[in-house]
Write a structure and sequence with these properties.
By secondary structure, the chain is of the alpha+beta class. 28% of the residues lie in helices and 22% in strands. Strands 1-2-8-3-9-16-10-15 form an 8-stranded mixed β-sheet, with helices on one face. The chain has a 4-stranded antiparallel β-sheet with strand order 12-13-11-14. Helix 7 crosses helix 9.
Amino acid sequence: MNVLERFLRYVKFETTSDEESESVPSTPTQKNFAEMLAGELREIGLADVRVDECGYVYGKLPATKDCETLDALGLIAHMDTSPAVSGKDVRPRTVEYTGGVLTLENGERLDPAVYPVLERYVGETLVLTDGNTLLGADDKAGVAEIVSACAYLVAHPEISHRAVCVAFTPDEEIGRGADHFCVEGFEAPVAYTVDGGTLGEIEYENFNAASARILVKGLNIHPGSAKGRMKNSVLMANELIAMLPPAETPAHTEGYEGFYHVTDIKGDENETRISMIVRDHDREKFEARKAFLVRLCAYLDEKWGSGSFELTLKDSYYNMREKIEPCMELIENARAAMESVGAEPLVRPIRGGTDGARLSFMGLPCPNLSTGGENFHSLHEFIPTAALEKMRDVLVYLVRV
């Protein structure tokens, strides 16, 4: 089974995670996928393959003769897909892209005017969906590339390589992917997550991140007698949102620039809940952003009456740069690996986070590598088949001696 065949098989497994669930993993379908992957790893020939009670898959490809004393290298990807778009009944197809607009089966259009990245892939074979679901390259492409790299090494015993420790995690898309990761039992002192986008990406800087939940409590009174008395929590919530810096949103920022992002608002006159995320690469600016939200909610709470605005802030992860800088050979090795397959190394900050960000602070330095996919978390997600093959080769390069 080649890397494309694995990928096409994997994306048909529904593994959407669920932020509202308290289960681990958050959805039972992830555990089903985990058990299948564990069986596949055993068939390939990996040792110590297991699925733990939290749905994490672990395995180890032993080192070849005379490489047993070398440190193992870890390769990690996540099994879940984003709850932002349906991941049920994914129907992948391959197309030869000759340029222009790509029309999906349900009429959805991939237009280079909207997605200029398409122009890079004229003449290539792309994997797409039918337009009704996401594809799941984030991160089943990473899973397929890791499994295929291990299978390739087993099929080519003439290639000398260090031990390879692999892990597949649940619930990364809802920020829980590292919650129950067993760093102590993983055996590799360093690792890579394979969870990025465009082929060539190498990432060791990411946002500092926090979630914000704001409960706005109003007072509903019949509109016929509401003058001077009603406190409409929907309007109160809108007042808070209007006071956020208008140019500090994802749509207005890039590179190292941070933002406030309102992700969800639900409510009525009595009670409204606002969900937000707060991001910044710089730790001091990150702390300042959180402090601004605290002051803003305190101001509005005083204006509307005590108990009107309740803020809950929770840090999600931090910038892994400080944990990667002592082992920059990981980045240099990744550069060489990308160049070996003809891909330009693209060392850039992540405008988001990965399991690797948290794992780096748990004692496992873990920069992130590309999968080759584009337009993640959307109906317009796709991946070139050549990128799947090249990333398999990149991973083989990284572990060979």
